[in-house]
Amino acid sequence: MSLECCAPIAREPLSESDAAELAALLKAVADPVRLRLLSIIGSHAGGEACVCDLTGSFDLTAPTISHHLKILRTAGLIDGERRGTWVYYRIIPETVNKLGALFAPMAEPARADLGLAPA
Amino acid sequence: MSLECCAPIAREPLSESDAAELAALLKAVADPVRLRLLSIIGSHAGGEACVCDLTGSFDLTAPTISHHLKILRTAGLIDGERRGTWVYYRIIPETVNKLGALFAPMAEPARADLGLAPA
DNA sequence: TAGCTACTTCGATGAACCTCTAAGCAGTGG
DNA sequence: CCACTGCTTAGAGGTTCATCGAAGTAGCTA
């Protein structure tokens, strides 16, 4: 899937393979814990956060957090790097932008396209 | 959740309740079949499509398509209306736009915010 | 009324998923 | 070398989910 994968969702029918790839990406963010992980990492000072900054925000065990981070990393949404004792995660903006492009703002009525009503 | 629910994902940490609501919305689109259903409905002439226009595009039974349409409708992504024999579905743009706002384009480096280093 | 088509609801099955505990790996420091 | 902390991997248990066949509802037509 290229960086600029697909037209906005309502522009033209998605191919089966594009839909599969986008669905996999969306499944990675379709979880409240992972959504909050992303937002915490992305808004953290320096653009990155170590796992120790994350576990405190959840009533979950460390292995569970690690599991969610792995899913985000596998999906290409974040990248992790070990520096000494700690592992730091950072958002990969290109992947997030792909989702933004998919749901790019629609015109509200979406009916002008048809020549139905000039008014 | 208001129309303009949340700041972009990487701007500030999501609240637990916002994350839960957004995750529910994302789970509705995190499926290749539903993604294609949305794109077919949205790009169909007239901005709407009847179920009979949809089933032909999938190797799935009618109950399964109906199941996916119900999930999209429950999530507020589409709206259905019966006219005579057929049922027509239409995208609700406001809900789609909510997702677009969540993944609004990020600046690529995202490090200028810190005053860490101009160079 | 009866019959036909379009679509939805119901109930069941098998796969995928979130969470945990236990155990393993990496790095630091006595 | 041993102990300790930070994080990940492995395996298990309970829940959710996609899909199907069968049955139900809604509308048209004769």
Automatic annotation (TrEMBL), chains A, B:
<dbReference type="InterPro" id="IPR011991">
    <property type="entry name" value="ArsR-like_HTH"/>
</dbReference>
<dbReference type="GO" id="GO:0003700">
    <property type="term" value="F:DNA-binding transcription factor activity"/>
</dbReference>
<keyword id="KW-0238">DNA-binding</keyword>
<dbReference type="Pfam" id="PF01022">
    <property type="entry name" value="HTH_5"/>
</dbReference>
<keyword id="KW-0804">Transcription</keyword>
<dbReference type="InterPro" id="IPR036390">
    <property type="entry name" value="WH_DNA-bd_sf"/>
</dbReference>
<feature type="domain" description="HTH arsR-type">
    <location>
        <begin position="14"/>
        <end position="111"/>
    </location>
</feature>
<dbReference type="InterPro" id="IPR018334">
    <property type="entry name" value="ArsR_HTH"/>
</dbReference>
<dbReference type="InterPro" id="IPR051081">
    <property type="entry name" value="HTH_MetalResp_TranReg"/>
</dbReference>
<protein>
    <submittedName>
        <fullName>ArsR family transcriptional regulator</fullName>
    </submittedName>
</protein>
<dbReference type="GO" id="GO:0003677">
    <property type="term" value="F:DNA binding"/>
</dbReference>
<dbReference type="InterPro" id="IPR001845">
    <property type="entry name" value="HTH_ArsR_DNA-bd_dom"/>
</dbReference>
<dbReference type="InterPro" id="IPR036388">
    <property type="entry name" value="WH-like_DNA-bd_sf"/>
</dbReference>
<keyword id="KW-0805">Transcription regulation</keyword>
